[in-house]
Amino acid sequence: MAFAEKLDAESAMFLVGSENALPKFQGKLYLADATTCGEFNPDGHKQLLLEVIAKEKPEMVVFSHSSYGWDLAPRIAFALKAAQLSEVVDVIDGVPVLPVCNSKLLRKVAAKTAVTVLTLQAGAFSLADEPTGSPSIEKIGTAATGKLVFDGYEQAEKGGVDLTKAQVIVSAGRGIGKPENIAIIAELAQALKGEYGASRPVVDAEWAEHNRQVGTTGQIVSPKLYMACGISGAIQHLAGMKKSEFVVAINTDSDAPIGEVADVLVVADLKVFVPIFIEKINKL
Ligand SMILES: Cc1cc2nc3c(=O)[nH]c(=O)nc-3n(C[C@H](O)[C@H](O)[C@H](O)COP(=O)(O)OP(=O)(O)OC[C@H]3O[C@@H](n4cnc5c(N)ncnc54)[C@H](O)[C@@H]3O)c2cc1C
After folding, report:
1. Which of 61, 146, 251, 261 has its CA 20 to 30 A from that of 35?
2. Whose CA is nearest to atom 30 of ligand 1?
3. Are 22 and 130 in contact (CB under 8 A)?
């Protein structure tokens, strides 16, 4: 909705869900009942979407850049022979903007096809006002199941730390260089009476547990103080911490994108800066 608002475009929504839990907005909603159409049923949902697209004839078909969005978007793009633009973070002069080179650069990309399929990065667009009211619903349905069988959900293992409740978070990025350096980040977090977090590469390398990951595929946090140590500031990380009240970044690169959201950017080697900083805090 925020994306359509930014383009000053008309929109119609598609939801596989329930009439009892509808999102608030005033507009058209194609609603498929999840109990009959399946919550995870990409082949069936593709068919439903193609019917809606044939009716609405949109110029853009938009998905969230989520695991299900990644699954559905290319199916629709292929069926429509449409161009797909993934991970759109902005629109400038009506042209979608995508991050490249680990978000160090942005590029504007215009599609040549009549219809464009897009996935939008979480948190990249927000509405001017909170939506209110009820949508006008058109019910749709399918019995098609396709080639995949949804087996059910499995509860993720509960971790020992809940970053969403932490008032102070000190996060380690790839810039820490080696797993042993997690210790200085954890020590700084302890000195500030907070928790330590991590960016995704640090978690992927198994230098920190997944429940410490901050970002779109980790925790969405809003502490009073967020310290990003050796973190470049990729959009997926920023989406998880941009609601922090005060952000301090420590980075050797004065042009790192994290500088754009940081209240204070310390241009330094974290391995030198952090131990001195801990010493100073402990003397207070
Ligand atoms: C679908 C998808 C989902 C994702 N979800 C997440 C997510 O939830 N969370 C997340 O974090 N990422 C996520 N990512 C990955 C994201 O795109 C980035 O790759 C990642 O955030 C980069 O992590 P980083 O900043 O630690 O590493 P890098 O981008 O490699 O940055 C390292 C930074 O450290 C600095 N540095 C190097 N040495 C030092 C030093 N000695 N002292 C100080 N600074 C130093 C460098 O200048 C650089 O800025 C996702 C990606 C995709 C595609």
Report:
1. 61
2. 174
3. no
Kindly give, in sequence order, each residue whose CB lies less than 8 Å from that of residue 106, ignoring residues fewer than 6 positions away: 89, 90, 97, 98, 99, 100
Among protein residues, the one whose CA lies closest to atom 37 of ligand 1: 175
168-211 pLDDT tens trace? 999 999 999 999 999 999 999 999 999 999 999 999 999 999 99
Residue 158 · residue 52 · CB < 8 Å: no
At 201, is the secondary structure helix, strand, or coil? helix
Pocket lining for ligand 1, CB < 6 angstroms: 102, 173-175, 199-201, 213-218, 230-232, 234, 236-237, 240, 250-253, 256, 269-271
Give the model confidence (pLDDT) of 229-238 as tens digits: 999 999 889 9
CA–centroid distance, 222 to ligand 1, in Å, is 19
Whole-model pTM: value is 0.70
- The distance in angstroms from the start CA to the end CA of the chain is 49
